[in-house]
Structure formats: structure tokens, C-alpha cells
Amino acid sequence: MLVLGIETSCDETAAAVCSNGELRSNIINTQLIHKEFGGVVPELASREHLKSIIPVVDRALKEADVSLNEIEAICVTKGPGLVGSLLVGISFAKSLAFSQNIPIIGVNHIEAHLWAPVFENPEIEPPFIGLIISGGHTQLWSVRDFGDYELIGQTLDDAVGEAFDKIAKMLDLDYPGGPEIDRLSKSGDPEYHKFPRPHIKGGNPDFSFSGLKTSVLYFLNSLTKDQIIERRADIAASFQQAVIDTLVRKTLDTADKFEVKKIILGGGVSANSGIKHQMRESAEEKGIDVYIPTTEFCTDNAAMIAYTGYRKFRDYGYRDNLEFSPDPGLKIVNN
To answer: Which of 6, 153, 265, 278 lies 20 to 30 Å (CA to CA) from residue 160?
Structure first.
């Protein structure tokens, strides 16, 4: 079954083609216009999606060597995300589904991230623990089967990617902040300053990064501008280590609690080299396998949307009518 996936939840316009769950193409256009504003501007994101969606879909079809007439279903992100961005993708997907008289399947963006590693690790089978870390989400999931999920913990305030961006701005680094801090941390001392590890004790599975962010701010206020410049790599590394320790500890504790020997990571922040290294190293000591997608599948992409939509249609016969709307706060509902 050939399906076309479309993803426009934030600032990536993406399209992909899958054949019976196997990837044929995956095109991602990342919007660069937001860089000068230090964050995603929703109105600009919607406009950029309007400009990009037709050429991106055309490229996905061409790379997959299929025509639109051969596509048997359309899978599209319906939430969570920016409402304007979602609306562009959904409206376009509806027009294709209507014109071709084929099913349309709305997909939850977070559920799709849980299955992003499958393209490079087709052997993955539930149960596993999923850690989703991005600019908008920090969540721990128990995945018992496809369509059977339980939310174990989530951030109570800032998402981890948001915290990276804010600290990067404090350090006068470029946006997006995550890759910049990761790059800078490689030459820094993670033991330079001991920032707090929020909620790391007591078995609490939830996350909180606002206190860590405030701690960094107070520490920077205690330094001169020259001291900050001189020790910027050390500060970045110390902050990143606090984040890593928190994410790894909570994820491994959750795996222990549920007696699960597999962990997957998804979302843009899972591309962080420090997180990947420590998660794998710490999990190996406990005999736990860790699956982390390459950057192409960590960030928002349509391959995971196409795969998840295909599975929803194949396994459960799920499909939407042409009247569904974007849902910026969409929750995962078990099938």
C-alpha cells in the first residue's frame, strides 16, 4: 500500500512516501526565516508552509518514483502543533484525498515520534519506554503495543528544547539553541558548575526545567561579561550535563519500574550528542537496548507520519472524514 505523509506542525514542511511501511522518500524543508527572530514566529511559519508544500510533495513523489494517482492514502499531522501550520498541511492533504477519492488519516505528531526509529531499526517490537524530547515536549511513554500507550511523566513547565533555546540566548548563541549548546559543550567542562538536577530524586517521573533555567540566570548574573565569555563553553557544558543527568536517570528509572529492556528516543533534542552517548552508556550497564534515530528522523519529518498513519489504517481500519480540524493540543488516544 502506497501512502503519502505530510507534516507541517511547526517550522518544517515535510512529505514522505511509504510502501507497506517501508520508506521510499523523505523530504524535509526547514524554515530558516525564524533564525533572525530567535524563535518560531507562527504567522511566518504558516506563510512558509504555503510556499513550500507543493514543491516538497512533488519532490517526495518524484524521489519515490510514483505518481499521485498511485497513492492509496494520505496521512497528515493533525496535532499537536501550531494551528496555522497544521491548517496548511491538513487543507492540502484534504484536497489531495478528495481529488483522488482516497482515505485520509489524521496522525498525532507525538505518537509518530514514538515510531521514528523503526526505519533504521525494523526489528523494534514493543514493549518499550519512549522518551520524546523537543522544543515543545518532554514526555515519557510506556508503549505496550502499537496503539496502546500510557503517559508516565511529562514536563511541568518548560520543554527541554525550550530550555536549551533560552540558555543559548542568555549565552548570546544563535537560534536554535540546542545544536549550539551541544557544539560548545564539547570543548567545555561539565563539572565547572553544579547546576540543580530537577526532580531527580524520589522516583517522580515528571520533569521541570524552569528552576534549572533560573539557576543558570542567577549564576550568569554573578559573573562579569568577560568571565561569561571566557567560561561560556564550561557553562554550556555544565547546563547540558544537568539536563542529561535528569533525562537519563528518569528514563532508566521508568524502564526499571516497568521491567522493560528497550528504550527509544524521539524528537529534535534526541539528536544531542551528549544525551545519546550517556543514554546508551548508562543503559548498556543495565542490559537495556537503546534506539535513537539519526537526525533526519529525530526532527519533525513526514516519514514517521506516513508510517504511523499506515499502521493505523492497516491495523485498525482508522480513517478520518474530510471535516476534521487541526487540534493544537491533541492528546494520544489508545486504539
So the answer is: 6
pTM listed for this prediction: 0.95
Determine the Cα–Cα distance for residues 68 and 70; give it in Å rounded to an integer.
5
Q: Rg for the chain (alpha carbons), in Å?
A: 20
CATH fourth-level superfamily of 2-114+297-316: ATPase, nucleotide binding domain (3.30.420.40)
Q: For 27-56, what is each residue's pLDDT tens digit?
A: 999 998 998 888 899 999 999 999 999 999
Kindly state which CATH superfamily the domain 126-292 is placed in: ATPase, nucleotide binding domain (3.30.420.40)
3 state DSSP class of 335 = coil
* CB-CB contact of 236 with 170 (8 Å): no
Work out whether strand 148-154 and strand 262-266 pair parallel, antiparallel, or are unpaired.
unpaired
Domains 2-114+297-316 and 126-292 share a fold: yes
Q: Give the pLDDT band of residue 91 (cuts 50, 70, 90).
A: very high
Kindly tell me the sign of the dihedral angle through the C-alpha atoms of 143, 282, 117, 48: positive
Strands 12-19 and 22-30 come out as antiparallel
Locate the domains of the chain by residue range.
Answer: 2-114+297-316, 126-292
Q: E strands along the chain, which residues?
A: 2-7, 12-19, 22-30, 73-79, 104-108, 128-133, 138-145, 148-154, 262-266, 289-291
